[in-house]
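tool_call predict_complex ligand=CU-O-CU linkage
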Amino acid sequence: MQRRNFLQLAAAGGAAWLAPKAMAEEFPMVVAGTDHVDMGHSMPMPAAAMQANGALPPLPPGEHLPALPRLANEAAEAGHFRASLEAAPLQAALWGDSRQTAFWAYNGSLPGPLIELWEGDQLEINFSNRLPQPTTIHWHGMPVPAEQDGNPHDPVQPGAQRQYRFTLPAGSAGTYWYHPHPHGHTAEQAFRGLAGAVIVRSKDDPLRHLPEQHLLFSDLKLDADGQVAANEMADLHDGREGQYLLINGTWQPMIPLFQGERQRWRLWNASSSRILKLALPAHDVQLVGTDGGLLAAPQTIDSLLLPPGARAELVVTGRFRDGVPAGLISQPYRRGKMMHAEQQQDEVVAGIMQHGLKPTQLLPASLRAIAPLGAPGFRRRIEFSENMADMSSMFLINGHSYDMNRIDGTGKVGRIEEWELVGNAHMDHPFHLHGTQFQVLARTVDGLWEDETFLAWRDVVNVAAGQSVRIRFVQHLPGLRMYHCHILEHEDQGMMAQIDFLAE
Ligand code: C2O
Ligand code: CU
Ligand code: CU
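tool_result ok
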C-alpha cells in the first residue's frame, strides 16, 4: 500500500476517534469554581441500563496509525505562524457507535493539533478558554519567555482569551509539546484530553530525507460508564495510568513499514505518569534525538526509557526478524508504584505492518555539534522526597510543598548551573525544568556514579528511587521558572518549586 493511501485511510478510519470539529458537541458549562461537570444528559443510554448490560466492551483496536491533524498557519508573511487554539468540551464516540465520552480538547481533536514550526518563526497563538476551569498553555521544553510560558501565575479564566507570542531562536529545532499548567488542575486537564505536539524544524536537518511517523502516547482511564474516570486516592499516590495506552488517540494502531526502509519516529510521552520502556525487537533502532533535538551521533539502542513529559527521535529500519514480535513493545519497568501492580509482561502497543521492500536510505554518522556545558558558576541540590504521614503534603522538593507565592531561589541568566537531583524516595520521579534544555552529566547506578556516554539536550530526566542525577544548564531568558516531577498528580500535589532567573 502506498503511503498516500495510508494517510487517506487514516483520515477516514481514524475519524471516529479523532473527532473532527463537526462532531464536537457542547456540554453545559458549569459554574466557574466547581470542578464537577454533569455529563449525564449526554449519555446515549442511562448509566444504570448500561451497567445492567454488564461491563463495557473493550475499545476497538485502531487500524492505521492516524496522522496528527496539523494546526493551519493563518499568517501570510514568511517567518510568521498565527493560529487559534480553543480548549473546550468535546464528545467522542470511542466505540464508533452511539456511546459518547466527554473529553476536553484543543480545537476539537484528541490529541490536540500538531503545531509545525521553523526555527526563527514568530508565533502568535490566540487562545480561548471554554473550559469550566482556569487554564494556561505551557510550551513544554521550548525556549519561551517566562510570561508567555503558561505559568500557573498567569491563568486564563473560563470564557477568557489571551495571546501567546514568542520567537523561536536558531538552534531550537526539536520535538516539544503543549499542555495546560494551571494551579492544581494540570493532571485533570491533561487526562481529559488537553495535550498536543509541537515540532520545530531546521532548514539544515540532516534527516529530512527520511519519512516521519509521529507517535503521541497518552493514557486513557475509563470508568464503568465509559467516561473518563476521576482520579482515585491510589492515582494521586502512584500517578494515574489507564486501561488504554493510546497512540495518537487510537488503541493498538498499525504502523506501516517496508523491509529495509528507514523511518524517523518522533515519540511523545503525554501520559500522566506511565514510564514507557519501548522496544522494537524485530527491527534496528537508533536513538537520534531527545527532547531538545538531534544528538551529535546516532546511538544504537535495544530499548528506550521514555518518562512522562519526555520525547525522543528514533530511526527505525524495517528488518522483520523471525522469532520475535514485529510490533512496538512496551516492556515491564518498575517505577515503585505502591497501590497498583507493576506491568509484568511485554505488551504490544502498536503493530507493524510489512509493506514489501524498500532501499535503505543513508543515516549520517554525525547529526550536529553539541558542545558540553563548561564548569558551573552555581550549584544546587534538588531533593525529591515523600512524606506518607501527611496527606496534604505528600510529595516534596527540598522538604517543601509548592507555594505559588514562594520563590524557592534566584539565579542568573547566562550562568551555567549544575544541579544534583536526588531521589530520596520510594518511587521514581521524572524531573522537568521549564524554559531551557539541560545536559545530563552522570547518574548513579546502584549507588555508583556513571558518566553519561553521550551528550544530549533534554528537559525531562527520570530520577529513579534512590538515584542521583547530575545535570547542567543555562537559562537564556529571565523570569520565574518551575521545576517539578512530571507525574502530573505529584506536580499538582506540590512536587514543584520555582526559581527566579534575573537578567544581568
Ligand atoms: Cu510539561 Cu511544567 O510541564
Ligand atoms: Cu515544561
Ligand atoms: Cu513524582
